[in-house]
Amino acid sequence: MIEPSLQSSLDPPNLLTRLKATPGTLQQGGARFATTHWSVVAQSALTSVPEAENALAKLCETYWPPIYSFIRRRGYSPADAQDLTQSFFAFFLRTKAYARVDRLQGRFRSFLLASVRNFLADNWDRNQAIRRGGGHQFISLNQETAEAFYDAASASDSTAEHLFELRWAKTLTTGALNSLRDELQAEGKLKLFEQLKNFLTGGSVLPSYDDASAEAGLPRATVKTHVHRLRQRYREIVRREVARTVSAPQEIDEELRYLCNVLAQAA
After folding, report:
1. Which among 13, 18, 89, 184 could disulfide-bond with 193, CB atoms 3.0 to 4.6 Å apart, if both were Cys?
2. Given 110, 127, 157, which residue is the final one in a domain?
3. Are 132 and 184 found together in one domain?
């Protein structure tokens, strides 16, 4: 869950306005369009060098939660959903079924959803899928972790497609938060991040600047400054991650709006 004041800054048009005003962002021309997921897929499709295959495997490992959640919501048991998730990625990586050039454009979210739909719809592929991806663990996946991501209690009111998109959005924002954590850790500020991260992630109880000030041993005004900077950097990282999931810079804002709306509807 995203804390309401941060959700407001993430919601359009606030997020777009803030990001466009941030020096060095794509909108300001301060950075080139990021290496996208599409470029990883295209490189892997055109070559079999280990680096390309490893990059694609890492991409699959990052985005397994929405795939698993989609399969579970389609009525498969936890064990079968794990098997099919592993088998889907085995099929995806081994057959290079994604390699058609006309598919390598648009939103990676939509492409991956269409890919798993087709995989499940193809009876031969589904029935011939060897358990656990043919004996290989393409992603690190256990039932407890997978079911925690699936969140059966909240999934019951969602379609498989909506659940996929919600888990996609949460995977992306969680990845952005982890990247921010890594940055702060590299700067020797991990303790500060842990003390203030609830201002980014939110929860059932809104964070208090006074409580954070007491915990961090810093003046309230200093805490507010740190929170402001963390939120600004978090927004930048979210934008960077979204940029990697589209095929052209002009698609970034539309995808940001869409994902913000997905998160807002689930709040």
Report:
1. 184
2. 157
3. no
Q: Which two tokens stand for residue 159?
A: 């379609």
The token duo for 236 is: 């930048």
**Two tokens at 19?**
């990001």
> 3-state class of 246 per DSSP?
strand
Name the residue among 143, 129, 171, 150 with its Cα closest to residue 70. Answer: 150
User: Which residue among 157, 181, 201 closes a domain?
Assistant: 157
Q: Answer yes or no: are the C-beta atoms of 252 and 246 closer than 8 Å.
A: yes
Global pTM value: 0.75
Q: What is the number of domains present in the chain? A: 2
CB-based contacts of 1: which residues, under 8 Å, 6+ apart? Answer: 201, 202, 203, 204, 267
Match 């409580």 to its residue by tokens: 211
Q: Which domain holds residue 138?
A: 33-157
Residues of the chain with pLDDT under 70: 1-35, 42-53, 95-105, 123-142, 153-157, 202-204
Give the chain's mean pLDDT.
76
Which tokens go with 127? 């029935």
Contacts of 40 (CB under 8 A, 6+ apart): 52, 55, 56, 59
